[in-house]
Amino acid sequence: MRTTSNFKRTVMFCLGVGLVLMQSMVHAEQEVTERIEWNKTPIQLDLKVDHERLVHFPGAVKVGVPSSLQALLRTQSVNGTVYFLANAPFDATRVMVRSIDGGQIFLFDVSASKEGGHTHPVQVYLKTNDERDTETMESSDASHDATTQYSYVYLTRFAAQQLYAPARLVEDRPGIVRVPVMHEPVSLIYGGAIDAKPLVSWRAGALYVTAVKLTNHTDQPQTLDPRHLRGTWLSASFQHNRLLAAGSEADTTAVYLISARPFEAAR
Fold first, then answer.
1. pLDDT tens, 39-79?
2. I need a labelling partner for 228 at 20 to 30 A (CA). Which of 139, 205, 241, 267 fits?
3. Cα separations in angstroms, 197 against 27, 210, 213
4. CB neighbour class for 99 (10 Å; exposed up to 12, middle 13-18, buried from 19)
5. Whole-angstrom Cα distance, residue 182 to residue 87?
6. How many domains does the structure of the chain reveal?
7. Domain extent for 100
8. Residue 33 has what DSSP assignment?
């Protein structure tokens, strides 16, 4: 009887951890602000129908909505932040945003869907030529130090802490910076049983670490094995190495991938 009781307590504990993990994953995906540098390349903005998405700019801006989107997309520009709200699905359409003070123009390819799309905020920023030159020199000087200072284990722990630790315990680390990563589902694990969706990525010198959400969409438990991953990874660490059937409290986990190239190039 004691063995059975202990087993039940262990199962309940694991399920509880899985539920907390799943809730943390959703919270992390919604709250993380993605920083994107404007480099004259149109920015892809995927909206979720009936969910407002914020885009922050360096200053006050005006939005030019094409006539084809007038009935489908609502935009409000307030003190440098544009609030995008899609009322119905539509394909990618070019939208122009103009800075009121300096005349700077930003281009977006905006789309909306009911099932896909994202809700996390986006921050668009600009760099001056002096800042670019300084960043290039600092990056070159610090690349070796950052890479040798932070091991694979440290970077993995850093990524996990950024996602799940209480805000008061989360700290920035010198040489580790956020980098943009697409949040679209990717084919990461062979077999097709597990969905993968990048959440957030960082660069430390010449290394990149990316947190990816994994979800089992089958009715069978799945065991996670780094040998089944697509891509060129220096290290792969699973938050849990087993997923329960879809719909259970423990059907979702995370994998932390370290690579020598940005996530999109490494996979």
1. 888 999 999 999 999 999 988 999 999 999 999 999 999 98
2. 205
3. 14, 11, 5
4. middle
5. 23
6. 2
7. 39-125
8. P
The whole-model pTM stands at 0.49
Condensed to tens digits (0 to 9), the pLDDT of residues 197-227 reads 999 999 998 899 999 999 999 999 999 999 8
- In the numeric block, which tokens belong to residue 237? 């660490």
Indicate the pLDDT class of residue 170, thresholds 50, 70 and 90: low
- Check whether residue 111 and residue 175 sit in a common domain: no
Q: Is residue 28 part of a domain?
A: no
Q: Is residue 9 situated within a structural domain?
A: no
CA distances from residue 241 to 9, 147, 222, 231, 257 in whole angstroms, order as listed: 20, 27, 9, 19, 14
Pairwise CA distance, residues 160 & 223, whole Å: 20
Is 151 inside a domain boundary? yes
| Relative orientation angle of helices 152-164 and 2-31, to the nearest 10 degrees | 80
